[in-house]
UniProtKB/TrEMBL annotation:
The keyword Ribosomal protein does not apply. This is von Willebrand factor A domain-containing protein 1. InterPro entries: ECM_Assembly_Org, FN3_dom, FN3_sf, Ig-like_fold, VWF_A, vWFA_dom_sf. Promotes matrix assembly. Involved in the organization of skeletal muscles and in the formation of neuromuscular junctions. The lineage of its organism: Eukaryota, Metazoa, Chordata, Craniata, Vertebrata. The gene is LOC105417821.
Amino acid sequence: MRAFLICCAFIWATFQQSNMQLPIPATEANCCEGDILLLLDSSGSVTNYEFSRFLHFSATLLRVFSLGRGHVRVGLLQVGTESNLEFGLDAHTDQRSLQKALERVQQLQGDTNTENALRDAQQLLRAAGGNVPRILLWLTDGASPGDVGQVMSELKAEGVFVLAVSAVHGNYRLLRDAVSPPSESHLYVVDIDDIEIITEDLRDAIIKIIQANRLQVVNLTPRTATLQWRPLLTAATGYYQLQYYSVRNPAIGSLQYLSGDSISVELTHLVPDTAYTATLLPGPNQRLFNALSVNFSTPSEVLGPTVVSVPDSGPCHIRVEWGPPQVAQVLRYTVEYSAFPSGRVHMLTLQSQQNFSLLTGLVPATQYLVTVSALYAGGKERAMSVRACTKEATAALPALLDLQLSKVPQQDLWQVTWQAHQEHLKGYWLTWEQDKPVDSISKPSALYLPPTTGATHLSHVSPGSRVCMSPVYSSGRGDGICCSAEEPSDWRRTFP
C-alpha cells in the first residue's frame, strides 16, 4: 500500500510539473483589450487534483493573449476562509511571467467564503477603471458557494461580465443565475477530467467580449476616409505598412508606408459607394502585433445643392446663394423664381462655377419661391427651394418726423413724444440707458411700442443718456432718431 501511494505521488508530481510548463506561443493575439479577474475556488472542498487542473486550464486558456495595458490584463483572486489576491491586474505584462506565476500558486484550503471574495473582486474591478470590458471568470467546484446572488447582480449592473466554470457537482441553478447572459456561452459545467474540451469555446466567448477594434474609421466621405489607431509602435521601433483596396476590384487601391509614431492617415481619391478593406501591418518586425484590419464603405456622392440661403434682400431684389461647390460634377445651374403662390415663373441658367445669383425687378413686400437646380454630367438632377421676402418700399420722407424728450416736473420721469408716417409700420423700438447706483454700471433698456402710440414716459433715465427710437417694419427695423436727456425740453429731433 505504501509503495502504491509513493507511486501515485510520483505520478501526480510528474503530471503537475509537465502540465504547468506550457510553451509560450510564438505570436500572441493582439485582438483584444480588457481586464480578466480569475476567481479561483481554493478552499478545502476542492481537491488538490481539481485545483491543479483549474490552474492548468487557466494557463492554457490565457496563453494566446498579449498582456499589459492596452491589451489584456489578468489578475487572480483565491477563495478561501479569507480571500487572497495572488496577483493584481498590472502584475504581468508578458506571457512568460504570467505562466510562471500560475505555476507557483498554492492552494489556501479552509472554508468556501465566496461572498467575501466577491466583495473583494468587486472593489478590484471598480478600482481598475478605464473604459475597457471587465470579466470575472469564476472557477469553482460549485460546492456551497454561499449567498452570492446579490453581489453577482451588483457586478453585472456595474458592467462586469460574469463567466463561470464548475465541476459537475455544482448547483446549476445558482450558477446560471450568477453568470451574465447568455448562459449558453458564459456557463460551463464539465467534469474536471474533461475540462480541456471547453477551452476553445470559453476563449471564443471571452474574445467576443473584449475584442478591440484597434483600427477604425473616424471620418468618412464619398471620396475620403480617415483611419485611426491606438499607438502600437514608435519612430524608433519600426514603421507601418498600410494597404487598402476595393473589395469589388482589388486593383483599385494603394500601398503606403507610415512612420512608427503615426496614429492616423487620410485615404484620398476613393470611389463613392464602394466597399474597401484596409490592413495595417508592422514593419520590419512582423511579430510585434498581428495585422489590424477594418472594412468600410464610402457613401454615395451627395448631389448638391444641399444648402440654399438668402443672405440679402431689398424692396426690389433678392440675393440667393447655394452650396456645396461641385464644379467638376455639375454641368450647369438653373434658378427659377416666382411670386408665391401663383406668380409668373422666371428662369436663369448659370455656369457650374457660379454659386449665387442676384434676382432683380421684384415687387416690394412680396414673398417669392426660389428653386435652384443642378444638372449633373451623368444626367441626374438635384433641386432645392427656399422662400424669401422682399422688403417694403420706404417712403421718401423719414418714417419718424419728430422726437422730443422733456423732464416731468418734480418726478423722476421723462416724457417722450414723436410724430411719424404710420404707413407699413408695425411698431416702434425705443432704447435708453437706465440710471443706476454709483457702484453699478448703466445698462441699456428697450421697449417695443404699437404703431398707434405717439407718446410714453420713461423712468430712471441716466443723465446725458441718449434716447433712440427706430421704426419697425415686417422686414425688420428702419433708420432711427435720437435725443439727449440733458437737452432743454424744447429740443428737437436729431438724426444719428
